[in-house]
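fyi for ur records
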Amino acid sequence: MKTQFITYCSILLFSICFISCSNDDNNLDQEGPELSAKGDAIMFSYQDQSFRDSLNLQLIFPAQDTITSKSNRWVYLGFYNESEKNEWYSIPGVRQEKNYKIYNEHEKDSSNPELVKFKIITEQAKSSESYGNTLNYKELKIIAIKPEAIRNLTPADLDFKDFFAVMDYFGLNKE
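which gave:
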């Protein structure tokens, strides 16, 4: 009887440990990105990302691109596609029909100049409460642009929320 009790307690403790160690809210780089670089822009392409409330990514820049950006700073544009359709949504943005808003935060790693910690966050559309539902993105693209490349652009020159316009402008779709 005592052995059976210990066995059941061990199984219970193992189950609790296993469940508490799962990390549904903060997936870290589920799969490494494919990189494309053209002139003043670098695109990090991820496939099949699933997350709830936030997604943490690590953007690792090629060393030569970190050095060539005068200020060593980048402007980040995010786009995602939820299905096989060619419909792209921008980050930041609001999806009223799904009742969520999405935005990003980024932070340069102080010990590694080629690394940027990039976080995508979702909240309920009309509050700052966590969205609470799992999102599945077929494709996720983060485009890093050197600020000097867009310094003199106006909205008439380039719509930064239009995935296809950004891809065309920076030549990222011509590989």
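The beta strands are 26-28, 34-38, 41-52, 54-60, 75-81, 89-91, 93-95, 100-108, 115-124, 134-145. thats all i got for now
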